[in-house]
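Q: Could you fold this chain for me?
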Amino acid sequence: MKKMGLDVGSKTIGVAVSDVMGWTAQGIKTIHWDENDFHTAEEALATIVQEHEISTVVIGLPKNMNGTIGERAEISKQFAVFIEEQFNLPTVLWDERLSTMAAKRVLLEADVSRKKRKKVIDKMAAVMILQGYLDANQQ
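A: Sure. Below is the predicted structure, expressed as structure tokens.
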């Protein structure tokens, strides 16, 4: 079964999915949503969960650099509860400090234009979150 990685932002959710073996993460979509209503992302997520036969959801936990939990991390924790309740799937909160910065660096080094970077940055951050989890949990 595949795993899904999510980079939960205030306006978008970057989505990545693992291969069946759980070795690599691929970015598949950026979902536009309203963080004040978690249900605005439900239909798009349900489609991905079903199509990819998702067994676990890895959600980025944006801790502060000193390791404390701020407002964004609290929203990610609430979203994890929502995913568990709506899809009956286990969730893992994964420390995502610097994942967006790393994604930006990769895209800059690949010489991706600013306009294109803006379109794929959340998806790339989701890939980095999920790949970090996969790498740490290789059997």
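A (continued): The chain has one domain: 2-136.
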